[in-house]
Amino acid sequence: MTSKTSARSTLHQKILGDIEKNIVSGEWPPGFRLPFEVELAKSYNVSRMTVNKVLTRLASAGLIERRKKSGSFVAQPQVQSAILEIHDIEAEVRSLKRDYRFVVLAQSVRTSTAEDLASFGLSKKANILEIACVHHAGDTPFCYEYRLVNLDVVPTAAEADFHAMAPGQWLRMQVPWSTAEHKIYAVAADRELADHLDVVEQAPCLVVQRRTWDDQGAVTFARFTYPAEKHAIVARFTPASSA
Questions:
Q1: DSSP structural state of residue 151
Q2: In the chain, which residues fall in CATH 3.40.1410.10?
Q3: C-alpha span between 65 and 58 (Å, rounded)
C-alpha cells in the first residue's frame, strides 16, 4: 500500500469514527441533518468521493438515511427482526444508539428432561447446557433469553465463558447452522418475567422461539422475550409464481 493510499484510508476511518461517535453519543440525535458532502470534504481536506464512501457505509449500517436533494440524516431508531434471519441482539440495541450489555442469571449442565427433548425434537436423552440471561439497552432490560444447548453436538459449550460473550454470538462463531426454525407468539408476563424485564405483571410480551440444527443434529433451542412495545417482527416476500 502506498503512503498516499494509506493516508486516504486513515482519513476515511477518522471521518467514519467521528460521525459514528457523534451519532452513538447522542450529540447528533435522530433526524439531525449531517453537514453536506462538500462541507465535510472541506473540513477534513479530502475529496467528495472519500466522504461519499463514508456516508454510503454509514447508510448501509443503518446509522443514517440519505435523501435525494435533502442530504443525509441520522436514522430514527428501529428495532425489527426479520423472520427468516438469525438476528443479533447486540446489533438491535446498537441500532437504538444505546450501550449494550448482558447479564447471565443462571447457567448449569444437566441431563435433558422430557420437556427439553420436546423442545429440541429429540427422541433420546442428551447432555444439556441451560442458560438464562438478560440483555440491556443502556440501563433498561431489552430482552430475556432462555437457551438450551445440546452438548452432545456442541461439547465445547460446557466450558465456554458466557459471561464474556453472549451465548448466541458464541454459537454463531463456533457452530455454523444449516437449518433454523422460528416460532413467534405473545405471552403475558408472569412475576418472574416481569422482574427480569422491569415491566408490570401481565404486560404483553413478544416471544421469538428458535431452534437450529447442523449436520450432526439439533444444536440449540432458544426463547427470546421482549416487552411488546419495544420490538417488531418483519417479513419481506414476493408474489408466488403463477406457474
A1: T
A2: 80-234
A3: 8
The fold of the 3-74 domain, in CATH, is Arc Repressor Mutant, subunit A (1.10.10)
CATH 1.10.10.10 residue window(s) in the chain: 3-74
pTM to 2 decimal places: 0.65
| Secondary structure of residue 145 in the 3-state scheme | strand
Q: What are 206's three cell numbers?
A: 413478544
**Which amino acid type is present at position 116?**
D
Topology of domain 80-234 in CATH is: Chorismate lyase (3.40.1410)
Give the position of cell 408472569: 190
Q: What is the pLDDT of residues 164-212, one digit of tens each?
A: 999 999 998 888 888 889 899 999 999 999 999 998 999 999 999 999 9
Contacts 24+ apart (CB under 8 A), 69-73: 70/33, 71/33, 71/34, 71/36, 72/33, 72/34, 73/31, 73/32, 73/33, 73/34
Using CA atoms, how far residue 123 sits from 67, 158, 237, 239, in Å, is 55, 22, 35, 38
